C-alpha cells in the first residue's frame, strides 16, 4: 500500500504545561539565575546538584502520602528494574536524601544552593507550569535562629538585586517547637470539630490529616471558621518564643522589613518554628514569589539522624515575570559593518581582538555591501564600526579603560 505523499505531517507541539524560551524572557530567566548565583556566593552557599529523578519513596515520605502533590501531581513511573521512580516535584527532599546517603553530616552546618527544573502535573496557569524551574537555598545541620535570619536576609537581598523588591512583602510566622505545635494542633482540631457543619468537603478531609491547612483555605465557606480559630501564640513555649524573637531581631538588625501573618502555616508535622513567604499582588492570584521554613523533622523522617534544617525556594519563571524592562540590557558593545570584502580579513582580526578583550561584538559581512551599514545599525549595540573601501582600519584595544581607537578610514557611531 503506497503512502499518500500529499498527507501533511502534523506539526509537533510542546507538552501541555511546558514552554520554549527565546529572546526577552529567556534573558530575564538567565538574569534571575545569574543574580542568584552571584548573591549566594556572597553568603557562602555552596553549589549543589542532585538528580532530576529519585525513588518515589523519597517524596512520598517527605511530602506525605496524602498530600495533593504525592497523590495527584507527581510524575511517577516504574523503570525497567521494577523500581518506582519520580521526576522531582521539589528540591528539599532530594537534598535531604543526598545529605543522608553521602554522609554529609561531617560538613554540618552545610549551606547549599541550587536551581533547575521541577515537575508537577497540575493545571497550568500564569506563572505555573508542569515543568517549572526554581531557585533553592538550604541550611542543614543548624538549629540556630541566626540561620533562619540569614536565609531571609539572603532572599531579601536577592529580590533587591533583581530590582523586584518594590511591592513584595515578607510575611512571617512561627509554628513553634514540637510541644507548641502539638498543643496548638489539638486546640485547632477541637475548634474545627465544633464547626464541622460549616466546613467545606476539602477541609473536612484535612481535619483528620492536616488540620493546620484549614487555616489557609481559599474556600469562602471556610473563612469564618478559619478566621475565628485560635492563634499559636497562646500555645508557644518560652523556648519557641525566644527562637522567634531571635529571628525577628536578626531581620530588624539587617534592615529587612517583615509582617506577621499568624495564619501562615505548613501542614506537615516535620515543620518547626519559622515559616515565611515573600508575597506580591503583581502576579494575580499566584502571589507567592519565594517561600520556605524550618523543617527540623524531615531528615529523621527520611531515615537519617535528627537534624535541624531550614530553607526556601522561589519560582524562576515568576521572578522573571517581575523583572522590569530597564533591568536587562541586551546591547552588544560593538557591531562591525564590513563595506568592502577586501577588508574581511582585517575585520575578522578586529572581531577576534574585541571578543578576546571582553567586548560583545557581532559582524555584518554578508549581503549587498552597500546595505551592510544600515543592517548593522539596526542591531542594538553601544557603537558601530564600519570598515570602508579605502585605507583599512587599525585598532588598539585599551582594556584598562575599555577604549577602542579606530584610525585611517573609519566610521564610529554611538547608538
From TrEMBL:
Subcellular location: Cytoplasm
Aminoacyl-transfer RNA synthetases class-II family profile domain residues: 32-323
Record-linked Pfam families: tRNA-synt_His
Entry's Gene Ontology molecular function annotations: ATP binding; histidine-tRNA ligase activity
Keywords linked to the UniProt accession: Aminoacyl-tRNA synthetase, ATP-binding, Cytoplasm, Ligase, Nucleotide-binding, Protein biosynthesis
GO terms for biological process, alphabetical: histidyl-tRNA aminoacylation
Enzyme Commission number(s): 6.1.1.21
Enzyme class: ligase
Catalytic activity: tRNA(His) + L-histidine + ATP = L-histidyl-tRNA(His) + AMP + diphosphate + H(+)
Ligand binding (L-histidine): 90-92, 120, 134, 138, 266, 270-271
GO cellular component: cytoplasm
Chief location of this protein within or outside the cell: cytoplasm
SUPFAM superfamilies: Class II aaRS ABD-related (SSF52954), Class II aaRS and biotin synthetases (SSF55681)
Stored InterPro entries: aa-tRNA-synth_II, aa-tRNA-synth_II/BPL/LPL, His-tRNA-ligase, HisRS-like_core, HisRS/HisZ
NCBIfam families, per database record: hisS
Protein family according to the UniProt entry: Belongs to the class-II aminoacyl-tRNA synthetase family.
HAMAP family named among the record's database cross-references: His_tRNA_synth (MF_00127)
Subunit and interaction comment: Homodimer.
Stated name of the protein: Histidine--tRNA ligase
Gene: hisS
Amino acid at each position: 500500500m503506497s503512502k499518500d505523499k500529499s498527507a501533511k505531517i502534523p506539526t509537533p507541539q510542546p507538552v501541555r504545561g511546558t514552554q520554549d524560551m527565546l529572546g526577552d524572557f529567556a534573558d530575564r530567566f538567565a538574569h534571575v539565575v545569574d543574580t542568584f548565583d552571584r548573591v549566594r556566593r556572597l553568603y557562602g552557599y555552596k553549589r549543589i546538584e542532585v538528580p532530576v529523578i529519585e525513588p518515589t519513596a523519597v517524596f512520598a515520605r517527605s511530602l506525605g502520602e496524602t498530600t495533593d502533590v504525592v497523590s495527584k501531581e507527581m510524575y511517577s513511573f516504574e523503570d525497567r528494574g521494577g523500581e518506582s521512580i519520580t521526576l522531582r516535584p521539589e528540591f528539599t527532599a532530594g537534598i535531604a536524601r543526598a545529605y543522608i546517603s553521602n554522609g554529609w553530616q561531617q560538613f554540618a552546618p552545610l549551606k547549599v544552593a541550587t536551581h533547575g527544573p521541577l515537575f508537577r502535573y497540575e493545571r497550568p496557569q500564569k506563572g505555573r507550569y508542569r515543568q517549572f524551574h526554581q531557585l533553592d537555598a538550604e541550611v542543614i545541620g543548624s538549629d540556630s535562629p541566626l540561620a533562619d535570619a540569614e536565609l531571609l536576609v539572603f532572599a531579601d537581598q536577592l529580590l533587591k538585586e533583581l530590582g523586584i523588591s518594590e511591592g513584595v512583602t515578607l510575611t512571617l510566622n512561627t509554628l513553634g517547637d514540637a510541644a507548641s505545635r502539638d498543643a496548638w494542633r489539638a486546640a485547632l482540631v477541637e475548634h474545627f470539630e465544633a464547626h464541622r457543619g460549616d466546613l467545606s468537603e476539602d477541609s473536612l478531609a484535612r481535619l483528620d490529616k492536616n488540620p493546620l491547612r484549614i487555616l489557609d483555605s481559599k474556600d469562602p465557606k471556610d473563612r469564618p471558621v478559619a478566621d475565628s480559630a485560635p492563634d499559636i501564640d497562646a500555645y508557644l513555649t518560652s523556648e519557641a518564643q525566644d527562637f522567634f524573637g531571635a529571628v525577628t531581631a536578626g531581620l530588624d538588625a539587617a534592615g529587612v522589613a517583615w509582617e506577621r501573618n499568624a495564619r501562615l502555616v505548613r501542614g506537615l508535622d516535620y515543620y518547626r518554628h519559622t515559616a515565611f513567604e515573600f508575597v506580591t499582588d503583581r502576579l494575580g492570584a499566584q502571589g507567592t514569589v519565594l517561600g520556605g521554613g524550618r523543617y527540623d523533622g524531615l531528615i529523621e523522617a527520611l531515615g537519617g539522624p535528627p537534624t535541624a534544617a531550614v530553607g526556601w525556594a522561589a519560582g524562576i519563571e515568576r521572578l522573571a515575570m517581575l523583572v522590569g524592562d530597564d533591568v536587562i540590557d541586551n546591547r552588544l558593545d560593538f557591531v562591525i559593518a564590513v563595506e568592502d570584502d577586501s577588508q574581511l580579513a582585517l575585520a575578522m582580526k578586529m572581531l577576534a581582538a574585541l571578543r578576546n578583550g571582553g567586548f560583545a561584538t557581532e559582524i555584518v559581512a554578508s549581503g549587498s555591501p552597500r546595505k551592510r551599514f544600515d543592517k548593522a545599525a539596526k542591531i542594538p549595540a553601544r557603537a558601530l564600526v564600519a570598515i570602508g573601501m579605502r585605507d583599512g582600519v587599525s585598532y588598539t584595544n585599551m582594556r584598562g579603560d575599555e577604549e577602542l581607537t579606530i584610525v585611517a578610514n573609519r566610521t564610529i557611531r554611538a547608538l
